[in-house]
From TrEMBL:
Uppermost EC category: hydrolase
A molecular-function term among this protein's GO annotations: metal ion binding
Family: Belongs to the Nth/MutY family.
EC number: 3.2.2.31
Name the UniProt record assigns to this protein: Adenine DNA glycosylase
Function of the molecule: Adenine glycosylase active on G-A mispairs. MutY also corrects error-prone DNA synthesis past GO lesions which are due to the oxidatively damaged form of guanine: 7,8-dihydro-8-oxoguanine (8-oxo-dGTP).
UniProt keywords, alphabetically: 4Fe-4S, DNA damage, DNA repair, Glycosidase, Hydrolase, Iron, Iron-sulfur, Metal-binding
Record keyword Ligase present: no
Record GO biological process: base-excision repair; mismatch repair
Reaction(s) catalysed (UniProt annotation): Hydrolyzes free adenine bases from 7,8-dihydro-8-oxoguanine:adenine mismatched double-stranded DNA, leaving an apurinic site
Organism: Sagittula marina
Signal peptide residue numbers: none
This protein's record includes keyword Thylakoid: no
DNA sequence: GATTCGTGGCT
DNA sequence: TAGCCAAGAAT
């Protein structure tokens, strides 16, 4: 009979192996009474949604340097925040980030609510993030369930029910293990374990503090858990982007509508992006000009489709008006303000 | 419950 | 290379 897993065994491991992360209060510091800043915990958790620590680090540094408090962020211009988020993906997060910051200032006196139910009401804050902020910022013993926790629980219990069907079962396992003491450290400990030891492929079971409690280890099934329902194949879409450069160097860009793909982000005017099995999208240049097609295509893969983008360029005179978008002065534009697919189109047009 | 929503790294 | 994967939320 294997041992039951205990939170204290994982906390002991965490005390020795906790990764040093910019938003993290190390366990020794927490024990000495240092408390987390809810703003930084919240910001990091939003950035970390479906995003790796490596990708988040620099964005977190830039955001906290430029907007050190929730009041600073709430007072920021929308376009500045969207530009700063460019490249990180899932842009609804950035739109909700601003909504949330402004709600915290306007409705909560500039303080993040410590109450889990109140956190859950904030824009962009779902079950995971509300629990994580409760636990990490306020040491409230909420049940934190992310992809790491799901994987660790599936293995501890050798649970073969596929996700997402298994979610309620795995959540119940997680709830049974969540301790009343040090819930913030515990939540981070499970996620660290999942990120460094109990990894999706080739888990390092020999280093795991819960090995003797793990049913999948006993059965030799750890690497194949959790089971997941198979994903659908991505269709291929195609479209055209129009890069108009005015003779003074200004670029013709548009802010995309808030809803939908790349919502709220800066982008090149273009055609719709349609499945390649349909007719080619109708040409729709945003300004009258002599358009030239750039050799090659910009290729990009989104969550649910591949895109092949034709890029056309034109040089236009000062006085000519565009039907869509606005010219942005060269001094007010950086390619890094663009979402990656738009930056790829820019790079292709530049000959890169 | 199923879809929509990015991106970069790794195998 | 083509698919898988990452501290999910909104609809």
């Amino acid at each position: 009979m294997r041992d039951p897993a205990e939170a204290s065994d994982l906390l002991d491991w965490y005390d020795r192996h906790a990764r040093d992360l910019p938003w993290r209060i190390r366990p020794q510091a927490r024990a000495a009474g240092v408390t987390a800043d809810p703003y930084r915990i919240w910001l990091s958790e939003i950035m970390l949604q479906q995003t790796t620590v490596a990708a988040v680090r620099e964005y977190f540094r830039v955001f906290t340097e430029r907007w050190p408090t929730v009041e600073d962020l709430a007072a920021a211009e929308d376009a500045d925040v969207m530009a700063a988020w460019a490249g990180l993906g899932y842009y609804a997060r950035a739109r909700n980030l601003l909504k949330c910051a402004r709600s915290v200032v306007a409705d909560h006196g500039g303080q993040f609510p410590a109450d889990h139910a109140e956190l859950l009401k904030l824009p962009g804050v779902g079950p995971y993030t509300a629990a994580a902020v409760s636990a990490i910022a306020f040491d409230d013993a909420q049940v934190v369930v992310d992809g790491n926790v799901e994987r660790v629980m599936a293995r501890l219990h050798d649970e073969h029910t596929p996700l997402p069907e298994a979610k309620p079962i795995l959540t119940a396992y997680a709830a049974a293990l969540t301790p009343a003491q040090r819930p913030g450290d515990y939540a981070q400990a499970v996620m660290d374990l999942g990120a460094t030891i109990c990894t999706p492929k080739r888990p390092a079971c020999g280093l795991c503090p819960w090995r003797t409690s793990c049913a999948a280890w006993a059965e030799g099934t750890a690497a194949e858990l959790p089971k997941k329902t198979p994903k659908k194949k991505k269709p291929i879409r195609r479209g055209t982007a129009y890069l108009a450069r005015r003779v003074d160097g200004a670029w013709l860009l548009e802010t995309r509508p808030d809803k939908g793909l790349l919502g709220g982000m800066l982008g090149w005017p273009g055609t719709d992006w349609l499945d390649v099995t349909l007719d080619a999208p109708v040409e729709d240049p945003p300004i009258r000009a002599e358009w030239k097609t750039v050799r090659g295509e910009a290729r990009h893969t989104f969550t649910h489709f591949h895109l092949i983008l034709t890029v056309k360029t034109a040089l236009v005179p000062m006085e000519r008006n565009a039907s869509r978008g606005e010219f942005i002065e060269l001094s007010n534009f950086s390619p890094s303000d663009l979402p990656t697919v738009m930056r790829k189109a820019f790079d292709l047009a530049q000959g890169g």
